Write a sequence for this structure.
């Protein structure tokens, strides 16, 4: 979509009247600029429609259309409603086959926002417009009249360079999220570990970061028994994707992002039942998120050192699959007792988390569609966050709030370690009870972030030995969009907006 700032509306654009419940439509700038006959009609419609919220397209006598939306302001948390309005404008415009719209920037600023608020709003608006305009139709024949995308959006505001920049940045973020959504939506038959690796290489070339792909032999040399174990059942060979972006100061330790790249999760020999297997081509969404957070940061020219790691495998049942009961030795030397081949994400992430230590990172963040249990706990409106660092956790939740990419915390307590004690190996890959599966999975991963218990000598040298701050995002709840997101069906691109926001700071 072409998104431009403009100081006045063009005749070719469909104006969008967005107003808050309790406010008068007459005060809207676009109303003041309307023809008198239209004014009466618009006012009549607004007054007659007493719903707290609505979104409609009006056909004026002149043959022109206008979009009119009323929203009920959420006083405590105004941004939530604003984000949904941004998306609803685009979905309504698409439905009405409108190609060009004009919106008034000030309509979207939360009450009391200052100049800097306007800049943030412009960026958010551009991102949300891109997200709402996206549809996955790569596999559909283009209809005769073309797709109903909105082609141009004019943001009416006093033009200035920082606003222009904000719009451009917002657009970049939206585009990168949409690229990740495309990767996730691509069917499992076409999105193999090899293809995911190629997509990362392309993202690196386009955005400007280094990508290195390790094949099976190199993975063997690294002794990544977790990755190799899960990959055993598939004819598709595993890849380990390494992305490096060093634009920060030399002395700054990098932040490592680790993404689950299971290109299809059948469950393996613990085969998933019919309806549970359906969307499992999206089980690489964490990997896609890492790739496109890197791309967004590179395109935004963020001055940081960021590393992305994606273990990519396909989890298949076959004569060569890993078995329940197998004992896998991970890169760290710690062994995993595979009690369920469907808990494969944590097994490959164990190796990737160990690999992350090579970079002596300041912070490690992993992103994974890890558990159905996280969905059972939170529904489909927030991803789960677990962290060893309260302050970082809080900042990330806030970044989520500002981007409509919501997080909610769950406990990371040592007490839960009891659950994953192995009988014949160091750690079992599932818990001992049916309860708290999202937490068990997080606590399992934690074991591979923690250093070995420091020797007394080392402990004296550094209290912090072996304690890398770590965040785990279980994005299974928000793997796919739901109706109320006002985004097209399929992958939601969860965590990219919030991580981009968090990492730019
Ligand atoms: N990829 C799934 C989790 C998932 C489920 C993501 C639904 C998105 C939507 C993961 O590999 C898995 O199968 N987890 C199991 C773990 C269980 C065997 C302990 C689960 O959640 O059921
Ligand atoms: Zn699984
Ligand atoms: Zn999985």
């Amino acid at each position: 979509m072409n998104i431009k700032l403009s100081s006045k509306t063009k005749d070719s654009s469909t104006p969008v009247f967005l107003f808050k419940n309790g406010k008068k439509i007459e005060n809207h700038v676009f109303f003041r600029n309307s023809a008198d006959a239209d004014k009466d009609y618009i006012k009549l419609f607004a007054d007659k429609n007493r719903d707290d919220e609505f979104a409609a397209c009006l056909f004026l006598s002149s043959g022109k259309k206008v979009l009119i939306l009323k929203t009920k302001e959420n006083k405590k948390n105004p941004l939530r409603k604003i984000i949904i309005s941004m998306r609803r404008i685009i979905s309504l415009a698409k439905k009405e086959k409108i190609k060009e719209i004009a919106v008034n920037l000030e309509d979207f600023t939360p009450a009391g926002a200052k100049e800097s608020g306007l800049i943030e709003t412009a960026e958010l608006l551009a991102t949300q417009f891109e997200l709402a305009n996206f549809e996955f139709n790569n596999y559909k024949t283009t209809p005769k009249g073309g797709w109903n995308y909105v082609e141009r959006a004019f943001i009416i505001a006093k033009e200035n360079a920082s606003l222009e920049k904000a719009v451009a940045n917002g657009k970049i973020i939206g585009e990168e999220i949409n690229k990740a959504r495309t990767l996730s939506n691509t069917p499992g038959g076409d999105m193999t570990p090899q293809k995911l690796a190629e997509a990362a290489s392309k993202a690196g070339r386009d955005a400007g970061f280094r990508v290195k792909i390790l094949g099976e032999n190199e993975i063997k040399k690294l002794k990544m028994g977790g990755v190799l174990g899960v990959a055993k059942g598939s004819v598709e060979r595993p890849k380990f994707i390494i992305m490096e972006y060093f634009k920060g100061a030399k002395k700054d330790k990098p932040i490592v992002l680790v993404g689950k790249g299971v290109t299809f999760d059948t469950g393996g020999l613990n085969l998933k039942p019919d309806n549970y297997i359906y969307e499992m081509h999206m089980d690489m969404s964490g990997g896609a998120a890492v790739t496109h957070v890197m791309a967004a940061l590179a395109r935004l020219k963020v001055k940081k050192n960021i590393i992305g790691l994606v273990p990519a495998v396909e989890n298949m049942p076959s004569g060569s699959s890993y078995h329940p009961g197998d004992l896998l030795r991970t890169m760290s030397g710690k062994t995993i007792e595979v009690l369920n081949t469907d808990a494969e994400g944590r097994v490959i992430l164990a190796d990737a988390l160990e690999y992350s230590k090579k970079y002596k990172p300041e912070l490690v963040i992993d992103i994974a569609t890890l558990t159905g249990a996280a969905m059972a706990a939170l529904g489909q409106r927030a991803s789960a966050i677990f962290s060893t660092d309260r302050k970082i956790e809080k900042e990330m939740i806030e970044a989520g709030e500002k981007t409509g990419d919501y997080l909610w915390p769950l406990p990371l307590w040592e007490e839960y370690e009891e659950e994953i004690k192995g009988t014949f190996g160091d750690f079992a890959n599932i818990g001992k009870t049916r309860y708290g599966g999202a937490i068990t999975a997080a606590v399992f991963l934690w074991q591979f972030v923690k250093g070995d218990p420091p020797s007394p000598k080392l402990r004296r040298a550094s209290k912090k030995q072996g304690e890398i701050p770590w965040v785990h995002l279980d994005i299974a709840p928000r793997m796919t969009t739901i109706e109320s997101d006002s985004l097209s069906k399929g992958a939601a691109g969860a965590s990219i907006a919030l991580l981009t926001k968090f990492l730019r700071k």
Residues 262, 265, 283, 344-345 surround zinc ion (ligand 3) (CB under 6 Å). Residues 264 and 279 are 9 Å apart (CA to CA). The domain at 203-504 is CATH 3.40.630.10 (Aminopeptidase). Residues 161-185 form the longest helix (25 residues).
